[in-house]
Amino acid sequence: MAALTQIIQPQLGIFTNIGSAHDEHFEDTRAKIEEKCKLFQSAKYLIYRKDQTQVGQYLEENFDPSVLISWSDKAGADYILSVKRHNNGSKIYLIGKDFQTYTFLTSFRDQASLENIRHVITAALSLGMKPEIIQQGLKLLHAVDMRLTLKSGSKGCKLIDDSYNNDLAGLELALEFMSQQITASGRKILILSEMQQEGKEEVVFQKIAWLLKHYSIDLFVGVGKGFADFKHLFPAESDFYESTDMILRNLEALSLSNDLVLIKGARAYGFERVVQKLEALAHETILEINLNSLRHNFIHYRQKIKPGTKIMVMVKAFAYGGGAAEIANYLQEIGADYLSVAYTDEGVFLRNNGITLPIMVMNPGSYHLELLQEHALEPVVYNLNQLKSLSNAMDSNSGLLSVHLELDTGMRRLGMSDQELDEAISILQQCSNLKVAGIFTHLAGADEAVHKDFTLSQISSFESSSNRIIQETGCKPIRHCLNSAGIIRYPEFAFDMVRLGIGLYGIEVNQLEQDKLQPAMTLKTVVSQVRTLQKGETIGYGRKGEMKNDGEVATLAIGYADGYDRRFSNGKATVLIKGQMAPIIGNVCMDMCMADVTGLNVFEGDEAILFGARPSIMDLAAKIETIPYELLTGIGPRVKRQYILD
Ligand SMILES: *Cc1c(COP(=O)(O)O)cnc(C)c1O
């Protein structure tokens, strides 16, 4: 911050919020506030929300009162700005320092926006702007979908949809995101509109051309009249169109196939139409994976264990339904050390998608030595027979094979028993080209306090058996035994590595630290039809649903074939529509289900959330007596996966 302060030298500061981001680098919240405040050393105005008490206290102790300007819902601040929400927006009531009052109107209803707006009002008032002028500006604010989204396109393409704004800094960010995606065979294509905010000077176009080169874009497509004078700055094979309509008519000319396409346009260009046309034809049921939340959760688990402890992430079963290649790729970026899959073909799939992290294969079946070696996959050896046949095969193999030994300490699933250890050790002593990269065990009851004694005995038997193997064979393995639940309950037994699974998606199966995680997966669909029904009418197969009163029923484009379990039928589950919970009515069908949306003012095309922040996967699973794992991994291949980065 000290370095930034020198560059920016801000005269007006707004201390918006203190959240949990970057917590891992600070002793406590106060230390983080102190660091942030370095930015405001020479500010003439420093605006803050009084009821953020930690921030308020720090500022009041450390800054000259003449620069501080506070606002709050309640009395005691310079500006009292209270909020009343109504159906289509909110009213913000101001009582100012000199008891001037004013009512602002805004179309926003969400917490974060209302907080931001009140910061803005306070700043504008402090600078002497009149409430009427501020109100005029507020009216022009509207919500924008500010998220970079990775989608699947038709003809094997991947699309990066960034069609909400366009400036040079944003372009660079989007190109950076693009460069982190894996392109197996296709081209990297950028479809870019003119940048209205940046103006039409030559330097802007030069910078764009430089970025193209820097990020090795294979094909550039410029949209807007402004490009006309600067075509010479761009590679000769570039395409230019005067308007969005023109490119829409000529999309065929791009001959897209397996390409990675970044679509970035200023709002006015309406590039969402380009995205729509390039998107894979699929119904509108989407599993949305929020990569920011994934990262947040990853960091939370990393903070629980000693620095230097490695993290293996379990990306078996298509990464718990989230999409193995994309999630593994992101994990590679944020610093995971190891990956693990259940079967060899899952590992091969990751390698074919450019994943370079070490990969452990839990259940390799009969060993395809060549396949494993060719793809640098590290199989688990979980019994003596396997170890024997593997060491025999390695006798006539010139290469080296890294393996992980699984010890059964009580799970009774896979793993070597204590009785097998002697023989295993003597085989390992003789086979020099088998490298024991890891030794691990799996806990049977890490998620429940009642199993504590059992778990501790598993861990202690793991410790002594693995010690023995290490001493007698001289190997230097990574030792690991904790799954997500174990990391929370027994972080002191992390050994050299932990195996993170469900926690990455924001599900804390112990329910001890659920509030510290963010739900990373949201399953959503759209309303296909809404109809008005009368009391007594029945709905769906077997006429199981019945209207208790007159009302409306919405048909949703998701069914049990998509992984929306049939046991959710007849009110077992509710879905979130228009911010309200609507119960499922009647039986869930294969491709569709119905929800009672009486009084919710629902229309065709409205979004319905099956799970996410609300309803939570945990609650939903409990309703049908299963576990979140089953719900996640059951989401069908027909459901599009989309990855968003806020
Ligand atoms: C699936 C699995 C994990 C991860 O379990 P979570 O409960 O999802 O954290 C860890 N270790 C092994 C051996 C597994 O099979």
TrEMBL record:
The active site is at residues 316, 541. GO terms for cellular component: cytosol. Its cofactor is pyridoxal 5'-phosphate. Pathway: Amino-acid biosynthesis; D-alanine biosynthesis; D-alanine from L-alanine: step 1/1. Residues 520-644 form the Alanine racemase C-terminal domain. Pfam families: Ala_racemase_C (PF00842), Ala_racemase_N (PF01168), Mur_ligase_M (PF08245). It is an enzyme of class 5 (isomerase). One of its GO terms (molecular function) is ATP binding. GO terms for biological process: D-alanine biosynthetic process. It catalyses: L-alanine = D-alanine. Keywords: Isomerase, Ligase, Pyridoxal phosphate. The modification N6-(pyridoxal phosphate)lysine is found at residue 316. NCBIfam families: alr (TIGR00492). Belongs to the alanine racemase family. PANTHER family: ALANINE RACEMASE (PTHR30511), ALANINE RACEMASE, CATABOLIC-RELATED (PTHR30511:SF0). This is Alanine racemase. It comes from Cyclobacterium qasimii M12-11B.
